[in-house]
## 1
Amino acid sequence: MKIKYITIIVNDMDESIRFYTEVMGFELDSQHNPIPRVTINLLKGEGDTMIELIKTAENEKGLFSVGIDVEDMESTLKDLKSKGANITMEPIPITVGTLTFLEDPNGVKIALIQHH
């Protein structure tokens, strides 16, 4: 498994993009509007890991989740469940593949994604 992205729910998208590009040195990669009133911007720096900024009224602001790429969702979940992982959402299809969530002992959300 490798970390693919960190998701942050933001108050002000423009201010957040300015901070991560002008102050932190990331580059704006892409923008998505998957559903009404939700805007997602992906920013990349060095390496493969990205920052995903999401503007939505549905979630509390701040760190939302850590996204991890997996090669085989079924076998990964089987292994994690056998080790006692707290799976909080069973796999669902998304536009780029399959997504599931689990939580660490501190309540940090971990998104597992198997891309097409």
## 2
Amino acid sequence: MSVSAAEIVTQLTELIGADAVIGDPGRMTTYLSEPRKRFHTGAAAIATPGSVPEVQAILRWANEKGVGIIPQGGNTGLVGGQVPLRGDEVILSTARLDRIRAIDPAAGAMTAESGVILANAHEAAEAEGVILPLWLASQGSARIGGVLSTNAGGVNVLAYGNARDLTMGVEAVLADGRLYQGLNSLKKDNTGYDLKNLLVGAEGTLGIITAATLKIFPKPEDYETAIVSLSSLDAALRLFEYLRERARRRLSAFEIVPQLGLEMQLRQGMLDRDPTPGPSPWYALIEVSRLTKGASGTLMTAIEAAFAAGLVDNAVFAESLSDRTRMWAFREQMSEVQSKEGASIKHDVSVPIDNVPELITEGIAVAEKLIPGIRAVPFGHLGDGNIHFNFSQPVGADPKTFMAESDEKLHEAIYDIVLRLGGSVSAEHGIGQLKVDLLRQVKDPVALQMMRSIKQALDPKGILNPGKVLG
């Protein structure tokens, strides 16, 4: 059934009220402008429901009319999953579903609606003396529903796991408007298929998450944070293994950044001063948490021993909150600084941890051979094998020419290495619309057929985020 944009706006207004519907293209801009500015398709309307029953009403209507619905949280996704593909869809923003429903420190559980901004969830948890350890660079605008729908990772995966690991239960509206009431804080529930894990990571193609019960943990009394200088990636890997053996679960972050990343940030004025120990090919940002009454100095003692063993060239430790903040800014500003340096080609990939040095070394060599002058800026979560293998344009190059001539051939080269090393072409950003064709090429055919069967069963009319993930 074909419904015009004008009819869509009129009918949505009847369902949820004029204040909750945007039909003017000029007012849609913030919903359509995604971070990488790669996708530029308009939408028929924006719906901003303020309750779960309103979400149900929208999906019942959309399912009846055959109108595509695109769930959108904070619009921070990097693969185009949260913006239109065709232009006749409705973006359903979860921004008004923003209540913290419950926090139970004793049960280790927090229930939050999908529109809660991640940073606000952190603040609510910490007010109760606990933490929600899902920590992302975009947490000031990313919302719970989007974070779960993409199974986001972040910098604390090493100690606490990714979004799926931290999800105890979800509430979601299905394509026909039915409500799946799967919120619970049970540690054990062996009553059939784990349905929440179908919805977490599905990128809104199987249902719209409206709330989730998430794991919370005792708040560490303090953190020990350091940046160390490393002569090579092999040294970084050996140091990680050394620290993991000594700090175990208290090792919450081990992030690598190349020298070029520091140079870019200092050149762009993004750091008030150099937070590192001095010039080095590679840096590792390392953090260890200390629980109440726990012994302090674990990280310093371990790094001193690593220095004696020849694994570390130099180190600097955070002596204040401002030091720690500056160190983390150095890591978290890596994506932003590349935008200031011109066009960049980005890969969110993962390989077995032991293969990270080989991935980066081979990838840089191939890229420099394909595109002379290209600047390799690989960084990220060495502790879980997830590297943001990014490349900035040569100095002085024309951005559009660089992307047109280099994007496809560089993707192919890097993904070939990743797959040969037993890795994944999408570690934490998802598939969205950017990697649909790539997924078809690399995914096991049986797995793809299983995914299509699940999609057909839960969304037979294909109204949920049409064209995303499976195409």
## 3
Amino acid sequence: MPARSCYRRHSGEFKFQLCADIRAGKIGRREASRTHGISANLMQMWLTQYDRGDLNAEEAAASVVAEYEAKVAALERKVGQLTMELDLLKKSPRLRLVSDSASSSIVSDPHPAPSGKDAK
């Protein structure tokens, strides 16, 4: 049984350029479909959007800019989070070293709480 491939996303610029090339006669539908691995139905949908004016260069460029802005914002959040963690680690006192025989935990003190059979 062959593995299913994941869905691909095509940028607005790619769609616009491909549709413009098809309408200008630079490339045929069948050739574009084979070259880029796009189904005929998807190609027709893009061409319909192109003919209506839903696909245009400005919107395509705007979508790329929006994608980049989202990536920049996500990276800025990550940098902020890592900076806060680094500051916290720099300010916290170093944990004292505990001998191998004693078990320690950051959450509790070095000696574990007595269990049911040890507590009397």
